[in-house]
Design a protein that fits this description.
The structure is a homodimer.
Chain A (H helix, E strand, L loop, with lengths): L18 E2 L1 H14 L4 H16 L10 H10 L9 E6 L2 E5 L5 H19 L1 E9 L5 H10 L3 E6 L20 E7 L2 E8 L6 H10 L8 E2 L5 E2 L10 E2 L5 H16 L23 E8 L9 H14 L15 H13 L1 E2 L2 H13 L10
Parallel strand pairs in A: 3-4
Antiparallel strand pairs in A: 1-12, 2-3, 4-11, 5-6, 5-11, 6-7, 8-9, 8-10
C-alpha cells in the first residue's frame, strides 16, 4: 500500500474521515522532499518523523508542516543538502551545527549522537544551533526509548508566551518531551509546550466566535482575557501554571538556545512567515540517559512496569474509564492508525494538496 | 550576631514580625543538630541549608522543619552518623546510598558529586536512594550555580497529587528546581512542585472557612472541587496544568525514585507522621552541567545576562511594577534578610521553640 489518501475525491472537497496509510503518507512525504533536493536517506528520516506524528494523532505537527518546509527548502532558508555536524564535543556532550538543514534531520542526528554518547557515558547532552522548527519533540525522545534509553528533547522558538506581568510575549512556547522505555508496555511519552494551550486553540475559538477560559491568554494590556479576538495579532499565550511554565521555558531557552549559540527569543526567525531565503536559527537540546546501565540487569524495566501497573490500577473517578500513563492515548491512536489508516483532518489534507502542488506531484499518481 | 530571635518575649506570645539573624538561626540549628549526634561538619551543612531557605522567604521549607528532623534523628529512622556513599558510579554518573542520613546531608553530598563529575565530563547525573525529605530543592541547584554550573534538583515523596481522572493521589508533589549562573546577576533560580498549589495552601483555606479555585483539589470522588474541607484526610492536589504537571511528576519519579532503587510512590515513608524509627527511603536526583565549557570563554555568561536584561526591559502590564526572572523575588528577600534579619512567621517561631525543647536548649541561651 503506497496510496496516500485512499480516495480519489478531488482536493477541493476535503472531508474529515479521509484515511491515509502510514506507508503511503511516508512515501508521499519522502518523494516530495527528494523533489526539492533532499538525499534519499534524509527524505526517509523526515518523512518517518512526520508520518509517525500523524499516526500518534498529533496532526498539528505531522505532514501538515510539509508544505511550509518545502517552501522554505525551495527558497533557500532551509538547505536541502545542509549537513549537520559536530561543532564541539567531548565524550558526554556535543554542540551540533545544523547547517540550516531541515530541523527534523538535524534533530534526529543530534539525538542519535546523544544516544551513542549515553551508551558510553551513561548520560549525554547534545545541543543544536542553526536548526529550524523540529516538528514533534516526542519523536526524538522516542528514538532514545527505542534503544532502551531515557530521552529528553526540547527546542526554543519565537516568543509567543507572556512572563507573569508582561504586556506581550517574551519567550517561546518552547516544547519539551521525554520518553522512558517501559518494558512490556509502550514507552512513557510526554510532549508538551510551556503555554497553557496551543495558539491554534485560541485562534480556533476566535474563528468560532467563542470566549476562552481566563488562563489561556493575556490581551493587548497584558491582563488575562476571555476574548480571543485580538490573537495572534496582539496578546500572548499565558504560561502553563503561571510562573512554573514560565520558569521551565527559561530552562529550555538556556539549554536549547543560549548554550548552543542559536538565536534566542525574538532573534529566532518565524519559520512559517519570515523571509524564506533566510535561516531561522532555532536551537534545540537533547539528553539521553542509559538508566538500565545504572541498575542490576532488568531491574529498571521491572520497576517502570510496576509503576505503570500501579497507575492503571489506582481508583478512578466515576467518569474516568481509564487512568493513562503519558503517551498511552497516542499509542492507542498509533496502533489503530497503522491498522486502519490515519484519519487525516481536512486542514491536513488541504495542506498536503498544497505540498503536492509545490513540487509538481499529482496526489493521484501516488496511488500506483 | 549569634542571637536567633532578637527578642526575649516568651515563646507563647509569638508574633509575625520577630526577626532572626541568618547567623544566629544557623548557629541555633547547627547546635541542635549536634546535640542529637550529627558531626560538626554535617550540622553546619544542614543548618546553612535551612537558614538560607528561610532567608529566601521559603519558610515552609526552612528551620520550621528542624523539629521534625530532630525527632526522627532521635528516634533512629534518620541516622545522625549515617554516611552517604557511592553505591555505583562511572565518570558521568553515580548512585548515592544515603545510609538514612539527614536528607539535606545526602543531597548536598550528591550535588557536590555531580558538580565534580560535571567539571570533568561536562554533564553528570547523580541519583540518590535511602534519603529522606530534602528541604528546599533550590539550595542544591544553587550549589551548582555558585560553581558556575547549571544545576537541576528533584525528589520524590509520598503521593499527594492526582492523575487526571484518579480518585485520590497517585504521585508525589515531586519538587524540581534549577539554577543557572547569570554573571553579574544573581543565579536564575526556580523551585516548584508539580501540584497546582502546596497542600498547606489548601489547608489554610480550610482553616479560614474559604472556598478555593477549582484547579487546586479533587475531592473524595476524584472530581475538581472548590471545597477544601476534606483535605488532607480525603481528596488529592491537582497536578499543575493537568496532564503537564502529572507528566513531569512521572519523569521526576523515574529519575529520583525508580532508577536509584529508592522507594517509589506509596512505598515512600511519611517523614513527618510515620513511625520515627523506620527510614522513609525517599529518592532524589541531581544534574550538573558545565555550560561555560561548551562555549568560548565568557560567551555563555554574556548571553544569559542579555536574556535577563531583555526580560527586565520587556513591556509590562499597567499593574506590574517589574518583570521578574525566576528567583529574583527570593534574592530580594535574601538580601534584605541578611541585612535586616529574617522575619520569621509565628508558625516557624513556634516550631523552633519545640525544636529547642527536644534537645534541651533554652532559646535564650542562644543569645550569648
Amino acid at each position: 500500500m503506497r496510496d496516500v489518501i485512499q480516495t480519489k475525491t478531488p482536493a477541493t472537497s476535503v472531508s474529515h474521515d479521509r484515511r491515509a496509510s502510514y506507508a503511503g503518507l511516508k512515501h508521499f512525504t519522502a518523494t516530495a522532499l527528494e523533489r526539492v533536493g533532499l538525499s534519499h536517506t534524509d527524505a526517509q528520516t523526515a518523512a518517518d518523523i512526520l508520518a509517525t506524528t500523524d499516526a500518534w494523532g498529533t496532526f498539528t505537527h505531522g505532514t501538515k508542516l510539509l508544505y511550509g518546509y518545502l517552501r522554505r527548502l525551495k527558497a533557500g532558508g532551509l538547505r536541502p543538502r545542509g549537513c549537520p555536524h559536530l561543532a564541539a564535543e567531548a565524550p558526554a556532550w556535543a554542540i551540533v551545527d545544523g547547517d540550516s538543514a531541515l530541523g527534523l534531520i538535524t534533530s534526529a542526528f543530534a539525538m542519535r549522537t546523544a544516544i551513542a554518547k549515553a551508551r558510553t557515558c551513561g548520560v549525554a547532552y547534545v545541543g543544536v544551533r542553526n536548526s529550524c522548527h523540529f516538528g514533534a519533540a516526542a519523536y526524538y525522545s522516542w528514538l532514545a526509548a527505542q534503544e532502551g534509553l531515557l530521552g529528553i528533547s526540547m527546542a526554543n522558538d519565537i516568543p509567543s508566551v507572556a512572563a507573569p506581568g508582561s504586556r506581550g510575549p517574551v519567550i517561546g512556547s518552547n516544547p519539551i518531551s521525554y520518553a522512558v522505555p517501559a518494558g512490556r508496555y509502550r514507552a512513557i511519552l510526554l510532549d508538551m509546550s510551556v503555554a497553557t494551550v496551543a495558539g491554534g486553540k485560541v485562534y480556533a475559538a476566535r474563528m468560532r466566535g467563542e470566549s476562552i477560559p481566563n488562563t489561556w491568554l493575556v490581551g493587548a494590556d497584558g491582563k488575562p482575557t476571555t476574548d480571543p479576538c485580538g490573537f495572534p495579532e496582539v496578546g500572548a499565550l499565558q504560561p502553563a501554571a503561571g510562573h512554573k511554565g514560565y520558569g521551565i521555558a527559561l530552562l529550555i531557552e538556556t539549554l536549547a538556545g543560549i548554550v548552543t549559540g542559536a538565536a534566542t527569543t525574538c532573534s529566532v526567525g518565524n519559520w512559517m512567515w519570515d523571509d524564506g531565503t533566510k535561516p531561522t536559527r532555532h536551537g534545540a537540546a537533547f539528553l539521553a540517559m542509559d538508566l538500565n546501565a545504572m541498575m542490576p540487569a532488568g531491574q529498571f524495566t521491572r520497576r517502570v512496569e510496576a509503576l505503570v501497573e500501579e497507575i492503571h490500577n489506582a481508583p478512578r473517578a466515576d467518569d474516568a474509564a481509564r487512568l493513562y500513563v503519558p503517551g498511552e492515548m497516542e499509542w492507542d491512536r498509533y496502533d489503530r492508525a497503522l491498522k486502519e489508516g490515519i484519519p487525516l483532518p481536512s486542514d491536513v489534507q488541504a495542506s498536503l494538496e498544497k505540498a503536492a502542488a509545490v513540487v509538481g506531484l499529482d496526489r493521484n499518481t501516488m496511488l500506483e
